[in-house]
Structure formats: structure tokens, C-alpha cells
Specification:
alpha/beta; Rossmann fold; seven-stranded mixed beta sheet
Length: about 350
């Protein structure tokens, strides 16, 4: 069975779907690995390392003419045209509802496994790419904030005097938010955090942050560990109650997302005007409209004396480790998808396993 690893062509994307370490493991299990030349260079994985791991270096056509195609980002029309009919695609689809690209793959006879559709179960944890990449985003967002904030994060005591620790608020205590809390605490900031799901309070405290408690009259806990959208009345109460806490912050990191819905507005323009000059907002929901209406996707803007960071691909800024995590997610998934035979690895019935059944797009 041939596995293809093409170079990612999305502007600004430095990750690659597999690393030499994982290629070597897959090769030992009987797979033939076709890696597009240069696919891993931007992530710090040169072609020579893939060749040493047993991969065949090929051109773009060779990486797509395979039984199993592995990608990080959503394919485009040219990618679909290059896919082998009857093959299997695994990657992040980055879509909701009707999708012309997915329809084109299915029309060509390509089976599609969407990594976003991975079920949130204990058995699937090692394959959960959304979580592995969100962890990196939470870490990198804090580094971005620290680099742009014009003061220290920790309390500093010197012969020239002392500086108080920065007050940092994290909105949303999912995977990215919890990692942001942990990273900011390691850097010495005073950290507060808020989430609409009451069950996150203990997690916030366990990382050394102070939870912000609000009475909204309803819970924001949804299915599968995700938050659900609040009612209009609860949203209004939330914004009003949060405002005083956020106005005291030096740094705000927002991570609030609801799958396939616009990001909830948590930091209004009125609130931005109340922040101290030089404050920083890092909006991890920028790709979905932003938790702040002033956020501009993939730009850093200054509004009312406040820097607002709207980057949409933090994992690509840590491309080597992000690729390694993603590659392990895929390798763990492939492990449950195939069985060995005298002719090499053979694909199992994808509908017979609860994980691949949930991921399969039809």
C-alpha cells in the first residue's frame, strides 16, 4: 500500500503531514512512502532525512498517485484532480455543511476521512489532531503576547526597582486556553481565566490561575466537551459581567470557538477603549470572525492604543513540533485502520470501527 505525503501549498503553511521518524515506522510495517521533494523543508525536515528513513522522493504527481494520501490542510481543486480514483484522503477539511471540494473527491471515488470529525473519546485521544494543534496554538499565542507587550510578564526585582507581574486573562478553557494558562503561569504572569462551561473551573485552578465566576442563568456546556452557543440574554449578561474584569487586564487571550458557528464576541470595542494603552489582545478565533470585532485575520492592528493580534495559523509558527504531533496522530489512526497480510498492509472496513466510521464523509 502506497502512502503519499505532498508539500503543503497553502500560503504561510510550513507544516508537513509526516516526519522522517514516522516514515521509518510506517516503512517497517510494509508501507511504501512517496514523499514530494521539499515537503518537509519548511518544518526542518530535509529530503535526505526522508530518504534515509526509507521514503521514495518524488514529484507532486507521484505523491498524489497513491492509495492513501496524507495532508495537513484542506485540498484545493488541483489537489483533487491529481488524486487517484478509489484512493483514500486523510486530512483537515476545514469546512462545515455543503463543500464543493469534498463533493469533487467523492465524485472521483476518493474516500474522505476528516480529522475534525475525530470523536472525543478516550480511545481516540492519541489521534486527535485538533487537540494536538490547539495545544501548540495556546502556547504560541502567549509567546506572541509576551513579545509584543512592552513590559515584563513576571514580577521583576532589581537594584533599579521592581516591576509588578502582568495581569493576563484567558477567555475559553479548552485545549488551547488551558495551554495558554499553563504557559503564561510559567512566564510568571498573574493569570485569570473564564469559560462558560462550569466543569472547567477545577482545571483552571489546577494550573494556578484564578477562575472568573459569572452567573449567566444558563450553562454553556455542549456535547462532546465543546461549548454551546448562549442565548442572546446570556450573551448580554456575559459581556456586561466580564467587562470590569477584562478592563483591568494587560493581556487578553481569547480562544472561544463553537464548531461551525461564528465566534462569540467577548471583547467589544467599548471594552478595548477601556484597556490601558499598550495592552495586547491575541484573538485565536480570528479565522471565525474573532472574539473581538476589531480583529483583522492574519494582521496585527492597533486600535485605541491596544495591539490586536489576529494570526490564524499558530501551529505553523512552530512547524517542526506541530508536524511531529500531527504525524503521530495520523500514524496512530493508520494503526487501527489496517491489518497485515502476506501481500502487506490491507485496509479494514472503515465502517466497522467507531472512530473511522465517525470520520468518514459520505
Amino acid at each position: 500500500m502506497r502512502i503519499g505525503i505532498p508539500a503543503e501549498t497553502r500560503l504561510g503553511e510550513a507544516r508537513v503531514a509526516s516526519t522522517p521518524e514516522i516514515v521509518k515506522k510506517l516503512k517497517s510495517k510494509g508501507f511504501e512512502l512517496m514523499v514530494e521533494a521539499g515537503a518537509g523543508v519548511r518544518a526542518g525536515y530535509p529530503d535526505a532525512d526522508y530518504a534515509a528513513a526509507g521514503a521514495v522522493l518524488t514529484d507532486r504527481a507521484g505523491a498524489y498517485d497513491v492509495d492513501l494520501l496524507l495532508k495537513v490542510r484542506r485540498p484545493d481543486g488541483g489537489d483533487v484532480a491529481a488524486m487517484r480514483p478509489g484512493g483514500l484522503f486523510i486530512g483537515l477539511l476545514e469546512s462545515c455543511g455543503e463543500d464543493a471540494i469534498v463533493a469533487a473527491m467523492l465524485a472521483k471515488g476518493v474516500r474522505v476521512l476528516g480529522m475534525e470529525r475525530m470523536p472525543r473519546t478516550s480511545r481516540a485521544q492519541s489521534m486527535d489532531a485538533l487537540s494536538s494543534q490547539a495545544n501548540i496554538a495556546g502556547y504560541r499565542a502567549v509567546i506572541e503576547a509576551a513579545a509584543r507587550f512592552g513590559r515584563f510578564f513576571p514580577m521583576m526585582m532589581t537594584s533599579a526597582g521592581s516591576a509588578k507581574p502582568a495581569r493576563l486573562v484567558v477567555l475559553g478553557a479548552g485545549v488551547a486556553g488551558l495551554q495558554a494558562i499553563a504557559t503564561a503561569r510559567r512566564l510568571g504572569a498573574e493569570v485569570l481565566a473564564y469559560d462558560v462551561r462550569p466543569e472547567t473551573r477545577e482545571q483552571i485552578q489546577s494550573l494556578g490561575a484564578k477562575p472568573i465566576d459569572l452567573d449567566l442563568g444558563e450553562s454553556g456546556a455542549g456535547e462532546g466537551g465543546y461549548a454551546k452557543e448562549l442565548s442572546a440574554e446570556a450573551k448580554a449578561r456575559q459581556q456586561a459581567a466580564l467587562a470590569d474584569q477584562l478592563a483591568k487586564a494587560h493581556v487578553i487571550i481569547t480562544t472561544a470557538l463553537i464548531p461551525c458557528r461564528p465566534a462569540p464576541v467577548l471583547v467589544t470595542e467599548d471594552l478595548v477603549q477601556r484597556l490601558r494603552p499598550g495592552s495586547v489582545i491575541v484573538d485565536l478565533a480570528a479565522a471565525n470572525g474573532g472574539n473581538c470585532p476589531l480583529t483583522v485575520p492574519d494582521e496585527v492592528v492597533e486600535r485605541h492604543g491596544v495591539l490586536i493580534v489576529g494570526y490564524t495559523n499558530y501551529p505553523s509558527m512552530v512547524a517542526s513540533d506541530a508536524s511531529a504531533f500531527y504525524a503521530r496522530n495520523l500514524a496512530n489512526l493508520i494503526e487501527i485502520m489496517v491489518e497485515r497480510s502476506d501481500q502487506g498492509p490491507v485496509l479494514k472496513d472503515l465502517m466497522a470501527d467507531d472512530i473511522t466510521k465517525a470520520m468518514l464523509v459520505s
